Structure to design on (196 residues):
């Protein structure tokens, strides 16, 4: 999540790209990062028969490395992603709805519908569910389990960044070394993560 926030920061602030370009680019970059982590770290460990505890320790070590790499690349200061600014909201009955809130709702509905259709109604989704249920049986049935796990890492990383950016628009428009921790501790993130 943190690197996805930095990817968005780089696109929005450093490269001055419009949000409709920078945010999808950040999501894609995070998906590539997640796939790279699966190919370089978790996949080889799993092939060597690593236990769940060893994978957890590897992920904690990787967390420390990635956090410090972000600090080296972008510095320690908190960055701001407030591309919406303060705007007058739309009247909705007796309430005011900000444009950012409208985009948050639309983005959540679109992301949820896209992932639901992908997991429920596609061949990839059937393979994904089979590997999640029983990897050995899925492999015996001819499913390329490493490829499905790679795609799952990429999709999970991209989805986490999308949800984090949605949370940043609505609640926490800051980027720092612990942006992922702040977003993950925020209640709407739990709801969005559970829904996906």
């Amino acid at each position: 999540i943190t690197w996805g926030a930095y990817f968005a920061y780089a696109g929005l602030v450093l490269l001055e790209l419009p949000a409709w370009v920078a945010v999808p680019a950040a999501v894609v970059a995070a998906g590539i990062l997640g796939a790279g982590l699966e190919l370089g770290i978790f996949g080889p460990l799993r092939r060597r028969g690593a236990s769940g505890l060893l994978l957890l320790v590897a992920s904690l070590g990787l967390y420390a490395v990635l956090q410090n790499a972000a600090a080296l690349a972008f510095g320690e200061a908190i960055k701001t992603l407030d591309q919406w600014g303060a705007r007058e909201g739309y009247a909705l009955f007796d309430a005011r709805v900000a444009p950012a809130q409208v985009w948050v709702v639309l983005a959540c509905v679109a992301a949820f519908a896209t992932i639901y259709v992908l997991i429920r109604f596609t061949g990839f989704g059937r393979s994904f569910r089979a590997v999640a249920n029983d990897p050995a049986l899925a492999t015996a049935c001819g499913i390329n389990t490493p490829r499905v796990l790679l795609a799952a890492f990429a999709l999970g990383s991209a989805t986490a960044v999308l949800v984090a950016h949605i949370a940043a628009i609505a609640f926490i428009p800051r980027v720092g070394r612990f942006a992922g921790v702040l977003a993950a501790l925020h209640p709407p993130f739990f709801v969005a993560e559970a829904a996906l």
The longest helix spans residues 19-47.
